[in-house]
Amino acid sequence: MSRTTRIAGTARKRGTLLACTAAALALLTTACSGAAAPSGGTGQAAAAPGKDDKLTLTVYSKFTSREYEVVTKALGKLKAKYPNIEVKHEGNQDDDKITQSIRGGNPPDVAISFYTDNLGAWCSNGSFQDLKPYIERDKIDLNQIPDAVRSYTEYQGKRCAMPMLSDVYGFYYNKDMFAAAGLSAPPKNTTELFEAAKKLTQFNPDGSIKVAGFIPTMPFYANMAQYWAPNFGAKYLGQDGKSHLAEDPGWKAMFEFQKKLIDFYGGHQKLEQFKSGLGDEYSADHGFQRGKLAMMIDGEYRTAFIKDQAPDLKFATAPPPVLDSIAGQYGGGFTTGTIIAIPKGAKNAGAAWELIKQMTLDTDTLVELANGLKNVPSTKASLTDPKLKLGDEFKTFLDMYDSGKLVPNPSTPIGDAHLKAVNDFAEKWQAGGVPDLTEGLKKVDQQVNDELAQKGSGG
C-alpha cells in the first residue's frame, strides 16, 4: 500500500494529508528545544555497534495490521549481522508523535514517516540528524537512488533522511471501455486525454453523468494539485525559493484544462452529484473498480486494491498524459515515499544507522518490503531484481521510477502549507469562486511567500 492508503486505513482522508494543523507546525518548529543532546549529532558519525553488543533499538512508524507485520519482519533481518540487538517496533506512531518524542527528549532510535511534507522543517531545525557523516564514513554511493528520490529526502543540501520505499503516480484505464469506444492506446497528452474523456463519458437521459471518462475536480481520489503538477510542468517554487504560481504557464494550463473538462460535464454541480454516488477511495466500491470511471491518475498501490477487490476488472496502466507543449516529459510523473531517519537525542545512533542502511540500501530487504507492501523499491538495483514479483501492470511504475523524469514535492520550512494553499485554491476555482485565474494565483503566491518569510525570520 501507499502512504495515502495507510492514511485511509486509519480513518484519515486524503484531503487531510495536506491539513497540517497549527499545533503540529508549532511542534515542528520547536522540536529541537529541550531535547537531549543527540547521540552522534555533533557532526561526527556514532560508532557502529560491536557484533556481540546487546541493546534494543526502538523504531516508530505508522504501520498497522498486516503492513506492520511485513515491516517488523524486515526490521528483524538486522539480527543476521547483529544477533544480540533487539528491535522494538512501535506502530501507529504518526508525525506528531515523532515530533513530540523529540521535543520531550525521549525519541525513538529510528523514525519512519509516511510523509515527506515535514522533512524541510525536521531538517532545518535539527529534529532529524544529519546523515552526511555516516554516508561519508561508510562510502555510500547515493547514485544508486534516483535523483527525484534523493531530493525528497534532503533539504537545502542537508541529508537528514533516507528513502525506504517510494510511491509513483501513473495512469489507469479500463480496457473494455477503451475497446467499446474505439480507443486503442492510452492518451499521451492532454488533448488526447480530453478527447478520450468525451468518447468514454456516458450520460443518462436526464443529462446526469452515468459513466465519467475522467474526473477533473479536486480533491477526489488521487486528484490533488501536487500529483498533477509534474504533468503540466508546473512548479511550486522558483529558483529564489519563492512561490511564483501566477507567472508559471504550467499552473495556468492545468487549471484551464480542469475548467474545460468541468464545462464539458455540464458544470461543477453535475460532477459533485455524480461523485456523491461513488464509493470511498479505498473501499471495494471505488468508482474505477465498479466501472463508473474509465480513466484516472493513481499510485502504484492501486494495482493491489484491484487484485483484491475487483479481480475481474480488465485494466491497464501507463504514464500520465502531459501537457502537449512538454511532450518530452511523457514517461515521468509525481513521486513521493516513506522516509526513515535518526531523531535528535537517539540513544543508539550508531546502531540506528546500521538498521537504516539495511532498510534503505539492502536489495533483499527492499524487494521483500516491496513485494509485501506493493510499493516501489527505492534503489536502482532492487528494480531489476528477479525476486521482485509485482505483476505486469506494476511494470509501468517501475519504468517511470527509472525514467529520470520523476518530480517530487519541494521541501520547505513551512511543511505542507504551500501544498494546502494550492489545493484550497483549486477547490474555489473549480466551483466558480475565482473570477480571475491570474489574480487568484497571485493571492496564493502572497500567502505562501508570507509564510516562507515568517519562517525565514525565525517566526
Your description of this structure?
The protein has helices at residues 3-9, 22-29, 65-75, 95-103, 119-125, 132-137, 147-151, 175-180, 190-200, 225-228, 249-264, 268-275, 302-309, 349-361, 363-373, 380-383, 395-401, 417-430, 437-456; strands at 55-60, 85-90, 110-113, 154-155, 158-159, 162-174, 202-203, 209-214, 293-299, 315-318, 333-341, 376-377, 406-407. The protein is α/β, with parallel strands linked by helices and 459 residues long. Helix 3 (65-75) runs antiparallel to helix 15 (363-373) and helix 18 (417-430) runs antiparallel to helix 19.
Return the average pLDDT rounded to an integer.
Answer: 89
Return the CATH architecture of the largest domain.
3-Layer(aba) Sandwich
Number of domains in the coordinates? 2
Radius of gyration: 22 Å
The CATH superfamily title of the largest domain: Periplasmic binding protein-like II
DSSP E strands, number:
13
CATH topology of the largest domain: D-Maltodextrin-Binding Protein, domain 2
By secondary-structure content and strand pairing, the structural class works out as alpha/beta
Low-confidence stretches: 1-40
Spatial shape: globular
Distance between the termini: 37 Å
CATH top level of the largest domain?
Alpha Beta
Largest β sheet strand count, sense and barrel closure: 11 strands, mixed
What fraction of the residues are assigned to beta strands by DSSP? 5-15%
Helix content: 25-40%
Count helical runs: 19
